[in-house]
Design brief:
The longest helix is centred in the first third of the chain and has 21 residues. About 75% of the residues lie in helices and about 0% in strands. It has a domain of about 35 residues. It is an all-alpha fold.
Length: about 70
């Protein structure tokens, strides 16, 4: 005797509900740590603009690099 289980179709509303709950939790965590998130994103952007600030890209990158340093 074989016990083959038939696959059960997943309800798309359950999947979107889980995605919605995860999104709300992520937004809540970002809200809790907002100063750290802003500082980290500015630090990353400042470092990346500093890496690009050479040669022909200086006229484009310099104002953005200095804006993040303020």
């Amino acid at each position: 005797m074989s016990y083959n289980r038939q696959p059960v179709a997943e309800d798309p509303m359950q999947i979107w509900g889980a995605v919605g709950v995860l999104l709300i939790l992520l937004l809540f965590v970002i809200w809790l740590f907002l100063p750290e998130v802003v500082y980290a994103s500015c630090l990353i952007l400042h470092t990346l603009w500093g890496l690009v600030d050479w040669g022909p890209f200086h006229n484009y990158a310099a104002p953005r690099y200095n804006l993040l340093a303020m």
